[in-house]
Structure formats: structure tokens, C-alpha cells
Amino acid sequence: MSTQGLLIVLSGPSGAGKGTVCKALLKECPQIQYSISATTREPRVGEVHGKNYFFTKVEDFEEKIASKNFLEWAKVYDNYYGTPRDFVIENLKNGRDVILEIDVNGAKQVMENFPEGTFIFLLPPSLEELSNRIYKRGTDSKDVIKKRLASAEGEIEEMKNYNYAVLNDKVENAVEKIKAIIVAEKCKVNKIDVVKEGFKNDLPID
Amino acid sequence: MSTQGLLIVLSGPSGAGKGTVCKALLKECPQIQYSISATTREPRVGEVHGKNYFFTKVEDFEEKIASKNFLEWAKVYDNYYGTPRDFVIENLKNGRDVILEIDVNGAKQVMENFPEGTFIFLLPPSLEELSNRIYKRGTDSKDVIKKRLASAEGEIEEMKNYNYAVLNDKVENAVEKIKAIIVAEKCKVNKIDVVKEGFKNDLPID
């Protein structure tokens, strides 16, 4: 019943499974627009501007930071990454829901810059499971894993600032819950325009 | 992930289809407890105490009003009707969701007495459709219908005090939306107990 799209911010500690859940959600709901990031890093082979990333020059990126044109941004090593506000807003205005899959720090910035978003915190089933997942990636040393887990504990403290928390015990369960959250958010009374629904017409009988 | 049940208050103007939607919801979700009303009217043939109603003596009912034992109550002609707080609370504590299907005045009282409920306003697709539905019942005179429609317009103004509004264009659509709202409500961060989810365990690796 609502006309404007929702900005769904999917965040949570690293290892919670944000990427997998987001991908599965988009497969089931292709009408949702994935928020494309801007970056100053070089395109890799096969990456397409406007699909994988908006590849942006450093000076342009910095100009957009200055003009508050990012919902969030970060510098990772030598490269900037950010969520262009214009792209998100344009989609929302066209009635399209946008999903932004992002780390906890990024989500914090979006809360400040776009508090009307729907903030979903994805929880791994337990720290044990989280450590298993990080282990399985096999890309990190034991020390890095310990740091990641310690920071995950800290990040879980952030959950209270979100609207929803979804347990990622199974990807399909998490996807079902996020779909339900989207439906429910669209039923919130502040998102419904009764005038458009025709209730202000004259009484149909005399 | 939450342990306590939800109190779902389904309300809306007369003719919105509350009864039909509630029945269809309970058929799909038999784990939800229908809130049983107390009444001082005589049982009709086949009505069972504790199933259709809690049949209550006038003096007991009035005592319970005095001791604030109703989430809402009303006197209709010579009979009292009310929602016993104890029955609802007991079910919620046992983790069972309770649905209360009630008119707009009743819902207003529940908002005061149990603001932590989930208040859903059921909207008929339009006033035209609402008048058709009331017509089809065939039980009301034209004057009564006009009064009902006028009061429906007033009742729709109450929508802003609810958490959600659900358009009852088709019963199955309305039921799907209410089911989604229930799922989403249980994902709200204030309803999730992380400690119980095991995140406060020690880090599993050394």
C-alpha cells in the first residue's frame, strides 16, 4: 500500500553470513535493487561499471564526501568505498526497495544519514558457529580469527540500535524472516496513504 | 527467538472483515490462541464456557471491572462483554500468541491497558466495498447502513494510533500480511534475548 520503496540495511558481524543471505534474498525477490557501491579501486577483469561498482576517480569521490553524497563511506587501505545517496534515493522514489549489505560500522553511518531505513542485524547462531565459519574460510590466521571473534562480540552489542535481528541458523529461515519484515514494514501505518486508498471519497449511498 | 507470546489486536471498522480474516488466520495458525471474552449474557444452545465465552455473573463482572481485570470491556444493551486480562497474560507468558478481534472502541482501551500489544487495523478496500458488504449482510436498514458508513469514516481516523494497517482486498492477502507482521514483530531487537541465544559464552578458541 506504500508508494516509496524501503531501504533495507542488512548488517551484522563478519561471518554472520550477510553475503549469502543477501544473495538468496535477491534470487527470490529480484524486484529488490542491490545497492551498488562506489569505489576508487581499479576495476578487476569482468567487473562492470554501474553493475558491480560505480568506479570513481579519487577527486570525484572526495568531492562527494564533502557534499555529503554518501550514505556511508570508508577508506580501506588506499581505496575509498561508499554508498552513493543519489542511486539509493532514486530507486526508493521509484517505489523500488533497495538492500544494502554492509558491515556494522557502515550501518552506523547509514543510521545517522538515513534513519528512516529498516536496519536488520544478522546473527550467527552462536559464537561457536561463527568461529567455525571463519575457520572454514581458511583465509585467516589463528590470530586474525581471534581478533575477528573478539570484534564480533563487540559488534553484537550494536544490535540494540537496529530495528530487527534475524538469526541466520539456516539461510532459508533468515530469508523468510527478512521477507516478512519487508511485508510488515510496508503495513506500518505511517507508510500508508489512506487518501490514495480511496477512503476520502464521498459516501457511496444517499 | 522471543520467548513471550504476542498480543495481536485485530480491529477496524465494522464491515472490514475482521471476523473472516481472524478465522482464516486461526485456521492456518492453530498455535495462536483466540482471546475468549467474558460476558454476562446467558449461554445460547451449544455454547461452551471457556470455549465460546467465559460466562460470568454480573456481580463478578463488575468486581473484575473494579479490580482492572479487563483489558477492555463494554456494556451492550443489558449485557457486559470484556477481555479478561488473566487469560491473555497467562497465554502470553506461556509463549503463546493471542489474537483479539475487537471493535475500534475496544482496541482503544487495550492500547491504554496493554500498549505493548501489536495493533493491526484492518481496512476494507474502499468505502464502496464497505457499503456493499454491509448491504450484503442484509440485516440492516438503509438508515443503519448510512450510520455505519459514517462511523466507519470516523473509525478510519483512528488508524494512526495503530502499529499496522492491512488492506483486506482479499482474505488470503490480509492473512499473509498478518502472518508476516507476527514474524517481523518477533524479530524486533527489543524482543530478542541475546544471552539466551548463547552469545555470552566464552570464545570457543584459545
From TrEMBL, chains A, B:
Positions with a binding annotation for ATP: G12, P13, S14, G15, A16, G17, K18, G19
Lineage of producing organism: Bacteria, Bacillati, Bacillota, Clostridia, Eubacteriales
SMART domains named in the record: GuKc
A Pfam family hit: Guanylate_kin
UniProt protein name: Guanylate kinase
Designated gene of the protein: gmk
InterPro entries, per database record: GK/Ca_channel_bsu, Guanylate_kin-like_dom, Guanylate_kinase, Guanylate_kinase_CS, P-loop_NTPase
Catalytic activity: GMP + ATP = GDP + ADP
Residue ranges occupied by any Guanylate kinase-like domain in the UniProt entry: 5-183
Entry keyword set: ATP-binding, Cytoplasm, Kinase, Nucleotide-binding, Transferase
